[in-house]
Amino acid sequence: MQPRNAVQELPKDLRRIVGEADLVQNTIGCSKALVFYIPHIRSYLKIAAYNDLEPLEYEAAVLQWLQGKPPFPRFTTTQSSRTVSIS
Questions:
Q1: pLDDT(60) > 70
Q2: C-alpha to C-alpha distances, 16 to 7, 20, 34, nearest whole angstrom
Q3: Burial of 70 (0-12, 13-18, 19+ CB in 10 A)
């Protein structure tokens, strides 16, 4: 999926945050999710299909646990839709 296509499929609230930003796809790591860096807000956007084994709530809990531990991006929000989980 191209970054611009990914943005068009985001929930309205996240589209407002991302705006017309240039998204830089991050291909480092083992995640099957799409991960983008958003330079103008110095943040990451992770888009993944729903996973029964590791639902969004589980990943959010892991990200909260990692806060303050060496170096890790600050966790801010999660959202999910019927077809996409975003964190």
A1: yes
A2: 10, 9, 19
A3: exposed
